[in-house]
TrEMBL record:
Alphabetical list of PROSITE patterns matching this protein: HTH_CROC1
GO MF, one example: DNA binding
Segments forming domain HTH cro/C1-type: 8-61
InterPro entries assigned: Cro/C1-type_HTH (IPR001387), Lambda_DNA-bd_dom_sf (IPR010982)
Alphabetical list of SMART domains matching this protein: HTH_XRE
SUPFAM superfamilies in the record: lambda repressor-like DNA-binding domains
Domain of life: Bacteria
The protein's name in its UniProt record: Helix-turn-helix domain-containing protein
Length: 129
């Protein structure tokens, strides 16, 4: 869709809201909402900020480019790392994956299992009584 107005309408419809509800969220009258969607008027920043707080993709409304969504359960840092990883050339991605796997493997706690001595077995039996 071309223009802020049609994208604003698309976002409103995506969220299943009426012009009245959308206008109320943004703090404008329904006729202003209609003018925004028709392209007669340009929405204010505070209006877009209020809508963004309710789930509107303001970046999409303004630019036509969707905001990339974080994967379910990822922190902002994890999502940022994934975004940076995706921008790397494939060879660098492969090298980074190799490094991360090595680091993760090295970070795993190593449990050394030693047979219990007779004294240690006796001590543990006493301690558990």
């Amino acid at each position: 869709m071309n223009g802020i107005g049609p994208r604003l309408r698309e976002e409103r419809e995506r969220l299943g809201m009426t012009q009245r509800v959308f206008g109320d969220i943004g703090g404008v009258e329904p006729n202003a909402q209609g003018k925004y969607e028709s392209g007669e008027r340009t929405p204010r920043v505070d209006y877009l900020a209020a809508l963004a707080a309710k789930g509107v993709d303001a970046q999409y409304v303004l630019s036509g480019l969707r905001t990339p969504t974080a994967l379910e359960g990822l922190s902002a840092d994890e999502s940022g790392l994934l975004g940076a990883f995706r921008e790397l050339p494939l060879d660098d991605q492969a090298a980074l994956l190799h490094l991360l796997r090595r680091l993760a493997n090295d970070a795993k706690p190593r449990q050394i299992v030693r047979p219990l001595t007779v004294e240690r077995q006796s001590f543990l039996k006493e301690a558990m009584r």
